[in-house]
């Protein structure tokens, strides 16, 4: 099997699973308990927070553990809206965000907030001036993703952060879920106030994530309860999940140092070879893209038909994003990039990890080629 669906989820590193099992079985205390078992668990949690803080180059006190990207995005967006609803009712995002951002905005719209959804160009990139033009006297939040999960476009986060520096009352949230370990992001220098990450995208476990909340930034909690995580995220902490996430992040950032050229080489190879095939349109930009995502359409076939045909030959890919691929929704990202509905319906995403090789890429191309030929023969 060739697994090219790493943007949906990655296979956990064995070391990550081992540390989850070890912490779960040996250090099962509740970090809030005052006895020895609780203190041990609390110390492991603090250690994980310190490590993650160091790896993300933020203060450990700015690291809040959550259940993953969806929760971090909801907490950042709704937490800001709740906190500052009396100051302003206007929030800004882009047309290519993940459902957890898009739907959070829609929910806030129903609650009376005004939302501006800035467009993207044909490469899926927002323009800084569109964002600045959208700012009103009562804007409280700008939420823009770092790497698009469907096509891999990198947004100009540094420039947006620089621009927003001039608006002290607007919080800047970045969905960093797809970028972690693949495209560096300097949270502090880019003036990011809130930043979401999710461990299962970098070989950690599902149900673990972080929201970085810069010191001095205040947002409202969404859960009421025992006031864990400095009152921002109540609920008994997933200590084993946090420890294993720290390990996954450390190992992934090691790969970033040593294997970035390898993954980029695999991506360039795939882009070049696919471009040469008949009736294929590539949607991933060839400049300013993350090194792990390749999105393309094989004209004439619905994406899901092609995905299943590839799976039969041992190549695992997806249609668009994992959450919309089962609903058979047309990619809103591709439509926002001005791709026609017909071509967007044929879209396929391949997403790599540092474990993938050129040999796998070469096999994948030949599987795609034979599958297209076979399906064409069946249809004609
Ligand atoms: C860009 C982006 N944001 C958020 C999420 C949601 O993360 P999680 O699966 O941890 O809830 C995903 C997952 O696909 C994603 O790709």
From TrEMBL:
Keyword Transmembrane helix applies: no
Keywords of this entry: Pyridoxal phosphate
Domain Aminotransferase class V: 2-361
Keyword Membrane (UniProt): no
Gene3D superfamilies recorded: 1.10.260.50, Aspartate Aminotransferase, domain 1, Type I PLP-dependent aspartate aminotransferase-like (Major domain)
SUPFAM superfamilies per the UniProt record, alphabetical: PLP-dependent transferases (SSF53383)
PANTHER family (UniProt xref): CYSTEINE DESULFURASE ISCS 2-RELATED, CYSTEINE DESULFURYLASE FAMILY MEMBER
Protein name: Cysteine desulfurase family protein
Organism, as annotated: Robertmurraya beringensis
């Amino acid at each position: 099997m060739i697994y090219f669906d790493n943007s949906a989820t990655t296979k956990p590193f064995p070391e990550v699973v081992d540390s989850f099992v070890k912490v779960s079985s040996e250090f099962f205390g509740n970090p809030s308990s005052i006895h020895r078992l609780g203190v041990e668990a609390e110390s492991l949690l603090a250690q994980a927070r310190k490590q993650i803080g160091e790896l993300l180059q933020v203060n450990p006190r700015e690291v809040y553990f959550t259940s993953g990207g969806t929760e971090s995005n909801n907490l950042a967006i709704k937490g800001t809206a709740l906190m500052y609803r009396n100051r302003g009712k206007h929030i800004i995002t882009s047309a290519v965000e993940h459902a957890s951002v898009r739907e959070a905005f829609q929910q806030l719209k129903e609650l009376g907030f005004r939302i501006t959804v800035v467009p993207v160009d044909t490469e899926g990139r927002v323009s800084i001036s569109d964002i600045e033009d959208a700012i009103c006297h009562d804007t409280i939040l700008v939420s823009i993703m770092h790497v698009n999960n469907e096509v891999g476009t990198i947004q100009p986060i540094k420039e947006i952060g620089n621009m927003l520096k001039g608006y002290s009352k607007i919080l800047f949230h970045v969905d960093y879920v797809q970028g972690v370990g693949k495209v560096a992001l300097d949270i502090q220098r880019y003036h990011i106030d809130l930043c979401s990450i999710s461990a299962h995208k970098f070989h950690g476990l599902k149900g673990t994530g972080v929201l970085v909340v810069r010191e001095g930034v205040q947002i409202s909690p969404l859960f009421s309860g025992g006031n864990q995580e400095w009152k921002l995220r109540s609920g008994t902490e997933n200590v084993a999940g946090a420890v294993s996430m720290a390990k996954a992040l450390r190992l992934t950032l090691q790969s970033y140092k040593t294997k970035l050229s390898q993954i980029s080489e695999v991506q360039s190879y795939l882009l070049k070879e696919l471009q040469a095939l008949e009736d294929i349109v590539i949607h991933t930009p060839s400049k300013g893209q993350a090194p792990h995502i390749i999105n393309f359409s094989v004209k004439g076939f619905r994406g899901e038909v092609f995905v299943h045909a590839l799976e039969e030959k041992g190549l695992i890919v997806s249609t668009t994003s994992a959450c919309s691929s089962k609903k058979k929704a047309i990619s809103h990202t591709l439509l926002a990039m001005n791709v026609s509905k017909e071509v967007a319906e044929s879209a396929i995403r391949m997403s790599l990890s540092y474990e993938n090789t050129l040999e796998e890429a070469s096999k994948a191309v030949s599987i795609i080629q034979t599958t297209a030929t076979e399906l064409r023969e069946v249809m004609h």
